[in-house]
Amino acid sequence: MWSFFARDPVKDFNYDILPDTQDKSGIWTLHRGKRKTGGEPLSVFVYEVSTGTEEQTQLAKAAFKRMKTLRHPNILAYVDGLETEKSLYLVTEQVTPLAAHLKAQSERGGSGELEVSWGLHQTVKALSFLVNDCHLLHNNLGIWAVFVDRAGEWKLGGLDHMTPENGDASTSLPSAKAVHPEMDKYDAPESPNSGEKWAGDVWRLGCLIWEVFNGPLPRASSLRSLGKIPKALVPHYCELVGANARARPNPARFLQNCRAPGGFLSNSFVESNLFLEEIQIKDPAEKQQFFQDLSENLDSFPEDFCKHKVLPQLLTAFEFGNAGAVVLTPLFKVGKFLSAEEYQQKIIPVIVKMFSSTDRAMRIRLLQQMEQFVQYLNDAAVNSQIFPHVVHGFTDTNPAIREQTVKSMLLLAPKLNESNLNQELMRHFARLQARDEQGPIRCNTTVCLGKIAPYLNAGTRQRVLISAFSRATKDPFPASRAAGVLGFAATHNYYSVTESAARVLPTLCTLTVDPDKNVRDQVRSTTNTLHIALVSNITYLLLNLEKDVMSSAQPAGAAASWAGWAVTGVSSLTSKLIRTGPGAEGGSPAENTPVGGGTASPCSEVKPPPASMTLPIASGLATQSDSPKVSEKNEEPIGDRWDDEDWGSLEAGDGWSAEPAGDWGAEESWESVDGSQGLSKAELAKKKREERRKELEAKRAERKAVKGPLKLGARKLD
């Protein structure tokens, strides 16, 4: 039992005092501390009885008692305390001495007049509360008695010398100059009780104002020099330090005078703070107007004030005050001052809750400003809590919401999972592109699809992109057609050579005569892009397939083979209207072998094709036989030698050649094909054999004619 009474109460104190964090504040030492259980940062004022005098101990105990009983928003807030025989511990909200705060602000560029105006407003309001409501005299007002919290708000402390206004001698405390002789310069020049009861405190308020703008007060006579005191505050400051004690204003009247139009305390910052303090009793219309104006003023407000004063009020207004979408703009502006961790803790939960709102104004504001907070959203929250609500915007009857929903996918796509991105989103995009009555929405859907293509899986790209952009090129809205063309250009690296030649280029070719000039211009640049991509991908393929043409030595039957290939190509482009002719027969396999028994290397020197291989479409090929000619040796139809896929690739490579078609051998006529000069060796050999056969038949007939009819012998007839 005796061990219980012998326990040290300081060890059971629920607060830790951080080492090497102390500032002198009168008879107290200010330490930074934290709560043991939650780690909440606090301030701890410590007074050591052993190091102080009896008068100082009396003042410390009086201040300890006053702090427990006084409650006001502008007075330093009491949290907890501990009194022992050795020490007094006074725990308050986390604060910094005003002198240290002003010094730190000056190193960062100085405190603005807005911040100082609100701080003075709070200090005077606290003094007015003590004098007019509590009938107490502070008797210790000065820069050492004012503290600043995390939000930058000024709190009045230093209650060591506080006494009732009509106190008797038994309740009086030692004066400030009795404990600290250097405080004599802050005392009013008149004798006590020669003026109003608040005269001494109002004089010290004037000293405080002087020190805030000019630094430490060297002597009482320096109060006559205005220094850096703002002009709007000068008349009211002069009233505070006037020689006539009875003419000094009551703190409440001083506050009223400074709040008059044009006064030092009449500005948007003070007005906003006053409104936030009374926001719970304001009408909804007043709240709406305030939040609209607040968004414009936040840029000029101090950062700490926005983080610790405005932000909690905004969150409370949304959570409990039904403020609606109007809080979003100031909320996101304040969010720029937060760290990533603070943003996750304070704003993201509210945003996730906002997405489930049925208020259209709220939803469209969220979509419009998504860029400001999307980087703080994690993938799990996007897929499970945000995307299911956002997709309702695709089917909304309001076109503005549908449009903003489409645009928001540019930001959400990187965070969507496989199902939401490749299935759910593509389903909505397909419906919008095909059925939405608004042309700009169809256009934006196409543009968005092109931009999010890198996030789609390969199967979805293969299935969706070409079909979607092809559909867009047939849209009656010109911007949608242009978007489809740009989509092909932006995603050309996702198409195979065959797809580009057989599906993309034919679609683009139909737009070369589009009535809209912008569409035609986009087609021109896009086809150039695809041409370069195709040439770079199929150069080796072309070299192998056309090695006979590009070799320096022409093998036997090469002209016939090229003629058959060219006719096949032309017939495929003209729906089989042009067929091969009788002179396009291919030679035997032996005749198709290059001279010397070798084959042309794919890396051999590339030369233009001979002039005899030019096939003007205006030639008389359309009158030839409808059935393709079959060669005598291999029995293979020349017209079917290339399948459609191979032709598609070659057609693309040939059609986008740097040299215009028709320039090769334009000087030479196709009529030479009918004569012997244009025949190949195989055809010449065939013709010679035919002539030789005819000559032999003629000689045989001549011999028969010379010999006469065959005599079978005479027969005698009866």
From TrEMBL:
Residues 16-311 form the Protein kinase domain. Residues 578-718 are annotated as: Disordered. The keyword RNA-binding does not apply. PROSITE patterns: HEAT_REPEAT, PROTEIN_KINASE_DOM. SUPFAM superfamilies: ARM repeat, Protein kinase-like (PK-like). HEAT repeats lie at residues 386-424. Regulates COPI-mediated retrograde protein traffic at the interface between the Golgi apparatus and the endoplasmic reticulum. Involved in the maintenance of the Golgi apparatus morphology. This is N-terminal kinase-like protein. InterPro entries: ARM-like, ARM-type_fold, CIK-Related_Protein, HEAT_type_2, Kinase-like_dom_sf, Prot_kinase_dom. Keywords: Coiled coil, Repeat. One of its GO terms (molecular function) is protein kinase activity. Residues 629-641, 692-705 have a biased composition (Basic and acidic residues).
